[in-house]
Amino acid sequence: MRDSLRFLLGDRLVEIDRCDPTLTVLDWLRLDQRMTGSKEGCAEGDCGACTVVVGRLDRGRLRYEAINACIRFLPTLDGCQLLTVEHLKGADGSLHPVQQAMVECHGSQCGFCTPGFVMSLLALRLNEAEPNVGRIEDALAGNLCRCTGYEPIIAAGRRMDEVAPREADRFLSEREAVAARLETLDDTETLALQGDGGRFHAPATVEALAELVAAHPQATLVAGATDVGLWVTKAMRRLDSVIYLGRIEALRAIIDEGDHLRFGAMANNIDVREALAALSPQLDELMRRFGGEQVRNAGTIGGNIANGSPIGDLPPALIALDATLVLARHSEAGIERRSIPLESFFTAYRKQDRRPGEFVETVLVPKLAKGALLHASKVSKRFDEDISAVCGAFRLTLGSDGRISEARLAYGGMAGIPKRAAAAEAVLAGQRWNEAAVAAAIAALPQDFTPLDDMRASAHYRLKIAGNLLRRFLIETTQTQAQTRVVGLLAETANG
Amino acid sequence: MADARRRLYMGVESGPVGSSRIHDSAPKHVAGEALYVDDVAAPEGLLHAYLGTSTIAHGRLLSLDLDAVRQAPGVIAVLTAADIPGVNDISSTHLHDEPVFATQAILFHGQPLFAVVAETRELARQAATLANAEYAEEAPLIDVAAARRAGGKLVTEPLKLERGDVAGALAASPRRLKGAMAIGGQEHFYLESQIALAIPGEDEDIAVLVSTQHPSEVQHMVAVVLGIGSHAVTVEVRRMGGGFGGKETQANLFACVAALCARKLKRPVKLRPDRDDDMAITGKRHDFVCDYEIGFDDEGRIHAVDAIYAARCGWNADLSGPVTDRALFHMDNCYFYPAVRARSEPLFTNTCSNTAFRGFGGPQGMVGAERFIEEVAYATGLDPLEVRRRNLYGGPGRDVTPYHQTVEDNIAADVIGELERRCDYQTRKAAIREANRTSPIVKRGIALTPVKFGISFTATWFNQAGALVHVYTDGTVALNHGGTEMGQGLYIKVAQVVAHAFGIGLDQVKITATTTGKVPNTSATAASSGSDLNGMAALDACETIKKRLTEFARKHWQVEAGDVAFLPGRVKIGAREIAFKELIAAAYIARVQLSATGFYATPKIHWDRKAGRGHPFYYFAYGAAAAEVAIDTLTGEYKIERVDILHDCGQSLNPAIDKGQIEGGFVQGMGWLTTEELVWDRKGRLWTHAPSTYKIPVASDRPRIFNVHLLENAPNREPTIHRSKAVGEPPLMLAISALHALSDAVASVGDHRICPRLDAPATPERVLDAVERVRAEAAR
Q1: Which of B194, B379, B415, B599 is most buried, taking the most CB atoms under 10 A from its CB?
Q2: How far apart are CA B685 and CA B279, in angstroms?
Q3: Which residue has the higher pLDDT, A191 or A311?
Q4: Cα–Cα distance for residue pair B325/B610, rounded to 1 Å
């Protein structure tokens, strides 16, 4: 056990012995350190004004990620480097190329969102050479600006590498040295931090995690904190015992095991996207629109599932793909594991089949069989960084006779849980994949779902869309010349 | 980059007005060094206040038990209406309808009941939830329809504009039609939420740092609530993290509560609501229902319009009177109505009190005007752009507005024609029609709409401004004026005016925070008037100083007054040229006063509201936009793919800053008309109270092709500051082109025979509804 938190703030080593488990990075920066460059715009990870960059070791390499400081708990930075807008200027007071580009392109007006944009652009610059406009937009999807209309900020994203070459960036040339310093902070000890508000544990191994969950059955398990953070900042809940899963490297792994992919629960949505994109461009586009970049960096596959939200965007896709969930817990004989079909994990609104001491450890996702058709669509008011009104993911298996041998139609936003459309699936089974089959499936959907009216959409619209997405699926698989999407990778490539 | 270019960008070089200088705070913005109220180093002994608010939307407060609040950890004090030494009212229009804290009547969900002060903000916020209030709950009136059903109680006097015999003209029109349009509201979503920090001083003095567009009103309200003179209150604003009208009156509450707590406890107090609370408590853009009847002929010429604009105003009047007035002032947009009647209906509802928002009712009025045009176009089968052109204001006989002001500076036809040519509108329109034939699911649409926006506060007395200019003995200049900086670049524009006036570099002009202690009795920085008013006031101060300097130089160097000229980087005195600072040094020794105030009052304007007649606007700003969109007819999803804009800034003071206003205004307007949807539940709770549920545009929503040009060689016909035109609000309405492009795409599913009547905001759900309706009607 280690009882002090250690991380780098810029190049300064910070060690903290006492810390509230849910103290946010933003409050620590602004109130404790009096570093007020990072701003609070929404305190829920939606506006990006608080964006900071976290460097963490990923398989021995330093990886930079933009995250929302407003919903990230400080103790989760153990072993990381924290960079804020205050760290960018050169020793001589000169602006960093990202800052200079923003100034030259008139990228700020009121200036309040600006530090967040600067940090998101910094992360992009450190991670990618010559990003195109689409990538810049993706990298900025979690940053709101109400003044500029974004055009000059995109221009700054294109300009930053012209101001000074990326290769010469101070943060890239210091990368090895910082990685070496972080290596010295890396250990396999469980971090156990006491604060006035409660206790924070961050185990470094799955075994230690299992023991901690068994010993603290009431503890809140925290992965990316992109939802739990809001329990604290919005609902003002006090979490007196937190177990953080982010230090367990084994849980971040994604392994290709031949006919399926094995995802550790802590694989973040950036890595999950990359892996799922290899299965289907449909999944690539679905994941492209998952949250904003900060949420994609922080949020994990395990968190998106274990959270049990009826509007999480991964569960419908994973259910359509017939994924298996592996739950683990401590036992006398070592770790005891239980595998269940993902769909059976969700039992009722915000209720899951998770037994005492259990945690989500692994998700197994079968690859697509030859002849299988896959579709994924998310419908929301805004394309980027929005929550689905309806998310539909479908997998059809066609037999050698051209008839549908299996249909898996999974929806989010249509019920209290992510759920399959059993009646519509039954209608499709044995049919040829054509307009008549789709019409029959659509007619069956009201048996499967009684959606709700809310601020995102009316029940009527939800049901209508649920059916029309099947129609979109049919057109995309049978009339490949027709354009069916108005934005994104699928609009720009296959159907564009 | 070349050093010279960078120096120019960074504003080091001297230069006249009209050049693209960066925002003066840009280097600080990007470094996180620009200070907002929450960033200012806290005074010793700072406490934090938080508001306790009602949990019902309508009813009576029977009892309010605050014991649990008082006993919560860290709590120092709890204040209610009983603690107010002055008047429990912050009504900006003096209707006495806006208590700081409710006492009996609860009029909306989120109405402040009390304030709790604690050692930390977190403790204050937690304690604020512990009140035990008992209510006699009544059914709330949530929207226009409900308010009308309940008898249509108004929050303020309605307005009627009338010209010609409307009933007669309608009856005589070859064709007529009736319709209604719902136009949604809009949350400001300034990135910096409301905040105030109050610091008590000696005697009754109190200093307030606050994020407001209207320091003088905050000063007045604090004085009224505390029962002290305005001279004891100093309000300072260095910058806001966005305003957009949301901090014209809405900062008053937070400033007054912070000041009240500070005065009571004799300690500095800060009040910053959480984003969700800010969104629940503060007012937004008014949503309207516009009912209209139009008389027209087969050539698409409008003969008469009769319209009622009914607005959800919320629980008090706030600025709803002038906002709904301005809706009527823009119900003509660029079009001449031979006979017209327009009436406003500012309705009371049990919702937050709607307020100023960029355009101030004008956008809603104009959205109505463009619907009238669209109706006529579909009814006659004419192209909407052709109908627009046929109804533009013209020469004598076709140049009088519904409020009887003659349009003297009309350039709408030129702007439309020039944009149509530049963006190849007709060719693209034909290509889109053709492409839609072979695209079964995705349909494209295009529309070109103009803007004419009236510049001046319609409350004529607000059209005044003051400035204070000090020249120090080293030749550097300190500039202060009544305008506030919310990101729009007002400070840099006025500094450019001053640098230009003295012929000195921008780096020689120090821009100082707006404070009621330096320039008194200022108007809100609103109505797009900031640089028009404050630029002229600052210039007036400069001219006063220059006059004294000229007089001094004439005597000192024995030249004629006409031989003294302030040139870039130097002063010409007869045959000699000296540096500005040399002149200043000599003038100081000669005891010349080197400080002056400046003042400006807009000429020509007058307005008789009772009669509905006058000349309320000094001039009009024009513009036009063409938008092209793609819609998905299976889901209603859409993308604004390309936008071309030609906008009239007169002779721009700073083209880069103006372009920023145009692009930013367009995208904000596009958000208003597309994805930004405010939803209240049946209990009157705002359901979209955070960015997770209220969707303003993100980077990928902006059009990928976005060609924005300032109209060239178009100096303001009126002698405004360097012949520039106001630019804050007008570009927002360019986004109406996006709504009409969506409508055009929807109409394609009915072969452009049926008017889609697409209401705003055109969310994907509304677009799909319209697609289905047009399809159904076309099939009939």
Answers
A1: B194
A2: 11
A3: A191
A4: 12
Q: Are B314 and B686 in contact (CB under 8 A)?
A: no
State both tokens at B219: 């000063």
| Any domain includes A437 | yes
Q: Tell me the C-alpha distance between A76 and A79, whole Å.
A: 9
From the list B20, B36, B664, the residue facing A147 with the nearest CB is B664
Per the structure block, which two tokens stand in for A40? 């609070």
Interatomic CA distance for residues A222 and A220, integer angstroms: 6
Active-site entry in B729, B765, B772, B777: B729
Domain boundary among A142, A163, A185: A185
Q: How many A/B residue pairs have CB atoms within 8 Å?
A: 275
Domain containing A27 — which CATH number?
3.10.20.30
Strands (E), B280-351: 288-296, 302-314, 339-348
Residues A424 and A314 in one domain: yes
Q: Structural domain tally of chain A? A: 2
**Span B258-274, mean pLDDT?**
98
Is A219's pLDDT higher than 90? yes
Q: How many CB atoms lie within 10 A of CB B719?
A: 10
Given the cut 0.95, state whether the ipTM is greater than it: yes
Could you tell me if residue A296 is inside a domain? Answer: yes
Q: Which three-class secondary structure state does DSSP give residue B664?
A: helix
Question: Based on C-alpha coordinates, what's the Rg of chain B?
Answer: 27
Q: What residue ranges in B2-74 does DSSP mark as E strands?
A: 47-53, 59-65
pTM to 2 decimal places: 0.97
Most B-contacting residue of A455, A462, A463, A490 (CB-CB within 10 A), to test interface? A455
Degrees to nearest 5, angle at CA B307 with B303 and B310 = 170
Q: What is the CATH number that goes with domain B409-457+608-780?
A: 3.30.365.10
- B571 vs B673: CA distance, rounded Å: 52
Q: What confidence category does residue A310 fall into, taking pLDDT thresholds of 50, 70 and 90? A: confident
Residue A309 confidence class, pLDDT cut points 50, 70, 90: confident
> Which residue is it, tokens 């029962």?
B227
Q: Tens digits of per-residue pLDDT, B25-84?
A: 999 999 999 999 999 999 999 999 999 999 999 999 999 999 999 999 999 999 999 999
Listed in order, the ranges of chain B carrying CATH 3.30.365.10 are 409-457+608-780, 464-601
Q: Which site among B5, B6, B30, B704 would you substitute to test the A interface, given the most A Cβ atoms closer than 10 Å to its Cβ?
A: B30
Contacts of B663 in chain A (CB under 8 A): 148-149, 151-152
What sign does the dihedral B254-B256-B259-B264 (CA atoms) show? negative
Distance CA A2, CA A19 (A): 14
Q: Which two tokens stand for residue A25?
A: 């990075």
B524 token code pair: 């809100």
CB B113: neighbour CB atoms within 10 A? 21
